[in-house]
Each structure stands twice: as structure tokens, then as C-alpha cells.
From TrEMBL:
Its cofactor is Mg(2+). Residues 17-167 form the Phosphoribosyltransferase domain. SUPFAM superfamilies: PRTase-like. Belongs to the purine/pyrimidine phosphoribosyltransferase family. GO terms for biological process: GMP salvage; guanine salvage; hypoxanthine metabolic process; IMP salvage; purine ribonucleoside salvage. It comes from Granulicella arctica. It catalyses: GMP + diphosphate = guanine + 5-phospho-alpha-D-ribose 1-diphosphate; IMP + diphosphate = hypoxanthine + 5-phospho-alpha-D-ribose 1-diphosphate. One of its GO terms (molecular function) is guanine phosphoribosyltransferase activity. GO terms for cellular component: cytosol. This is Hypoxanthine phosphoribosyltransferase. Its main location: cytoplasm. Its EC number is 2.4.2.8.
Length: 187
């Protein structure tokens, strides 16, 4: 499919919601908090592919306690921006988490469907504890009750890209978090 400029406008033309400096400050603060909360313990960071990859990479380096990584992948919105409500696991964790302190790391907590599903799935593995860290939280959009333990930014209802987050797989490498114009992909 040919991509017109309107379909995929340049990221530089979009308004910055959070700059890379603002993001770095919040990530450092969350990393410090996690390091304090888990002092003397080991943790497993489980990132939700692909959106959380960049947040996890930065957060992990802001954490001073012993940490390992794992990743899960779930069915995504794809081109559509409205959740079907059905979440499907595409990639499971590689290593057992029984008895471990686990933090699920996500890019956005939106309706809550993805993290509710993943939390239920991870709890079946009997971790010692399970918490949630999310870069962005859109509390207005929640369809199921779930809260994150660590949130970088709580935002109103808007569609964002950058810092790992995409529109049709694009813009993940944009350093800032930017607002997708409503006429293109915003809501
Ligand atoms: P739920 O609704 O299950 O969805 O909490 C979480 C997932 O939805 C995606 N999502 C977005 N992705 N910009 C994005 O690039 C957005 O504004 C946005 N809102 C939700 C995201 O992948 C998240 O993992
Ligand atoms: Mg995601």
C-alpha cells in the first residue's frame, strides 16, 4: 500500500507530549523507587513486546538491584486503534518465574485488557510477587479495574507515538513521546 504524507506524517511535525529529557527524569525516578522497594533482592523484568522494549531498556539501567529480563508478546491492535477486547499470547516467557519477584513492564496501560490478561497468566506461574510498571497510563480509558504500581506519566485520552510506541509499526524510534494528530490516527 502506498503511504501518503497524511498517512504517516513526519514525527517532527507532531506536538511533543514528553521530551526525551522529561522521559529520562521520570525513568530515573521509577528506577530509583524500584531499587529501593526491592533492595537486596533479585527481580525479573518482563517486557511486553514490542512497545515496552525501549522503556524496559532504559528502566533496567536505572535499576541497581540484580535484574534479569524476559519478554512476552500479545496480539496487538495492528492498524486498528480500537481494541477487539480479545488478547492472545503470541510469545510466552522463556524462563520459569515461580518464587521470583516479577515486574511486568508495559508501554501503555489503556483499557487494561492486555495487562489484566497478562497478570492472570503470570500469576498462574506462582511468582513470589507481581507488580506492574508502565510508561504511560490512560486512566480514562479503563474497561477493567487494574492499576500500575509504577507509572512514568498519567495522560488524558490521546493517541501517542515514539519511545517504543507505534502507529502501524512506525515511529517506535522517535525519542520523544509525541501526539498523533487526530485526523491521522489520534483519538
Ligand atoms: P490495553 O487497552 O489492553 O492496551 O490496556 C494496551 C496496549 O494498547 C496499545 N496502545 C497504544 N499504542 N499509542 C500506541 O502506540 C497509543 O496511544 C496507545 N494506546 C494504547 C499499546 O500497545 C498498549 O500495549
Ligand atoms: Mg504494547
Amino acid at each position: 500500500m502506498p503511504s501518503s504524507p497524511l498517512q504517516f506524517p513526519p514525527a517532527a511535525s507532531m506536538d511533543v507530549l514528553y521530551s526525551k529529557t522529561q522521559i529520562a527524569e521520570r525513568v530515573a525516578a521509577i528506577g530509583k523507587q524500584i531499587s529501593e522497594d526491592y533492595e537486596g533482592q533479585s527481580i525479573v523484568l518482563i517486557g511486553v513486546l514490542k512497545g515496552a522494549a525501549i522503556f524496559l531498556a532504559d528502566l533496567a539501567r536505572a535499576i541497581t538491584v540484580d535484574a534479569t529480563f524476559d519478554f512476552v508478546a500479545v496480539s496487538s491492535y495492528g492498524r486498528a486503534r480500537v481494541s477487539s477486547g480479545a488478547v492472545k499470547l503470541i510469545k510466552d516467557i522463556d524462563n520459569p518465574i515461580e518464587g521470583k519477584h516479577v515486574i511486568l513492564v508495559e508501554d501503555i496501560l489503556d483499557t487494561g485488557l492486555t495487562l489484566s490478561y497478562l497478570r492472570g497468566l503470570m500469576l498462574q506461574h506462582k511468582p513470589a510477587s507481581l507488580k506492574i510498571a508502565t510508561c504511560l497510563d490512560k486512566p480514562e480509558r479503563r474497561l477493567v479495574p487494574i492499576e500500575a504500581d509504577y507509572v512514568a506519566f498519567s495522560i488524558p485520552n490521546a493517541f501517542v507515538i515514539g519511545y517504543g510506541m507505534d502507529y502501524a509499526e512506525r515511529y517506535r524510534n522517535v525519542e520523544d513521546i509525541r501526539l498523533m494528530p487526530p485526523e491521522v490516527g489520534g483519538h
